[in-house]
């Protein structure tokens, strides 16, 4: 037998041994799952569902209201917006995975994209280049806290924003886990504006957009839910700061460059933020963060300054020049 034929034989033997090992491992883990009482029926339902999601993501270039370059659109601004009804195909027109479209997934609020893809489970989408091994995007929930998960992968060519084509892996996981929505930060409070309207700033540091429905703002007197224009998505994109104003129209004319501006139910943050002192709480379910102030010691008392957090997650606050929409 020639050397290269021997080599091929070795490869076949190795592949067969590996397949047998994987089959044994699979039957062992399946048996273990039965023993551990894992709900296999529900897990089985996830296998076709992940394939449907993979098919949706790799089946087209996607579009929003007829715009195929949907990655250039945003939540909450412009006439054509990303919202339900957006097809989230990740391909460029020639069938190669588009890095820009993959990264644009980060703009989708968690609930919005799951709804768009018809998913009731928790969802995670990861795109990685294989050589070099680098993450293009991780979208979605915290897989580490998942009790059961199902994952499917597809290998594709990805065209980077620089124009290179590299092998990449698109990975979709469906899993069961507690809903995680713990990262929205109160970063600025304008409680005594020299003119205009009271406002506060919220920052979303995550890699995916966050829905604002259910988040509450409270002072010592009243609770308010955050509200938006009916034509806008009530969400803040990934790594973006938004403003909640008593009067969003007045705020938008004072600060036209701020893209994400929302209001509250009754046009007053709490019952109005006290100029001499007050307290503001941002909460969602059991999560809660409170910032209280006294104008005599904290400043920002009608001099054009606001109270600003030293960094998005730091404990310190200082009175400084207002920077709504920027952290
Ligand atoms: Ca109110
Ligand atoms: Ca005030
Ligand atoms: Ca700011």
Describe the structure.
With 327 residues, the protein is α+β, with helices and mostly antiparallel strands. It folds into 2 domains: 41-176, no CATH class; 185-321, Immunoglobulin-like, CATH 2.60.40. Helices cover 23% and strands 31% of the residues. Strands 15-14-9-10-13-12-7-6-16-17 form a 10-stranded mixed beta sheet. Strands 1-4-5-2-3 form a 5-stranded mixed beta sheet. It has a two-stranded antiparallel sheet with strand order 8-11. A hairpin with a 4-residue loop joins β9 and β10 (223-227). The model is unreliable at 28-37 (pLDDT under 50). The site of one calcium ion has 9 residues, from β6.
Brief synopsis:
Helix content is 23%, strand content 31%. It has six helices and 17 strands. The termini are far apart.
Secondary structure tally, helices: 6
| Overall pLDDT score | 87
CATH architecture descriptor name of the largest domain = Sandwich
Sheet with the most strands: spatial strand order: 15-14-9-10-13-12-7-6-16-17
Spatial extent as radius of gyration: 25 Å
The CATH topology of the largest domain: Immunoglobulin-like
Distance between the termini: 69 Å
Bound molecules: calcium ion
Helix content: 10-25%
Q: State the CATH class of the largest domain.
A: Mainly Beta
Give unreliable regions as ranges: 28-37
Report the portion of residues in β strands: 25-35%
What is the 3D form?
elongated
Order of helices and strands: HHEHHEEEEEEEEEEEHEEEHEE
Helix vs. strand class: alpha+beta
Number of strands: 17
Described by strand count, sense and barrel closure, the largest sheet is: 10 strands, mixed
| Domain unit count | 2
């Amino acid at each position: 037998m020639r050397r290269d034929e021997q080599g091929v034989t070795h490869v076949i033997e190795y592949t067969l041994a590996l397949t047998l090992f994987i089959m044994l491992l699979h039957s062992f883990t399946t048996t273990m799952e039965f023993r551990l009482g894992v709900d296999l029926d529900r897990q089985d339902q996830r296998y076709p569902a992940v394939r449907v999601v993979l098919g949706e993501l790799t089946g087209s270039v996607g579009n929003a209201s007829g715009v195929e370059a949907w990655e250039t659109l945003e939540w909450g601004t412009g006439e054509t917006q990303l919202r339900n009804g957006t097809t989230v195909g990740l391909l460029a027109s020639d069938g190669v995975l588009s890095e820009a479209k993959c990264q644009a997934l980060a703009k989708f609020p968690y609930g919005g994209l799951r709804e768009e893809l018809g998913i009731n489970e928790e969802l995670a989408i990861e795109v990685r280049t294989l050589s070099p091994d680098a993450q293009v995007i991780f979208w979605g929930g915290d897989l580490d806290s998942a009790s059961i998960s199902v994952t499917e992968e597809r290998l594709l060519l990805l065209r980077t924003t620089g124009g290179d084509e590299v092998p990449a892996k698109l990975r979709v996981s469906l899993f069961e886990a507690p809903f995680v929505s713990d990262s929205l930060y109160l970063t600025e409070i304008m409680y005594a504006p020299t003119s205009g309207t009271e406002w506060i700033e919220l920052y979303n540091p995550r890699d995916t957009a966050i829905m604002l429905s259910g988040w509450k703002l409270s002072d010592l007197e009243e609770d308010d839910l955050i509200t938006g224009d009916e034509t806008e998505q009530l969400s803040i994109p990934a790594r973006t700061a938004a403003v909640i104003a008593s009067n969003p129209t007045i705020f938008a004319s004072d600060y036209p460059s701020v893209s994400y501006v929302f209001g509250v139910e009754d046009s007053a943050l709490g019952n109005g933020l006290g100029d001499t002192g007050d307290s503001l709480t941002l909460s969602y379910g059991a999560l809660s963060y409170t910032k209280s102030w006294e104008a005599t010691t904290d400043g920002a008392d009608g001099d054009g300054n606001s109270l600003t957090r030293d960094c998005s997650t730091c404990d310190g606050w200082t009175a400084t020049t207002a920077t709504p929409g920027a952290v």
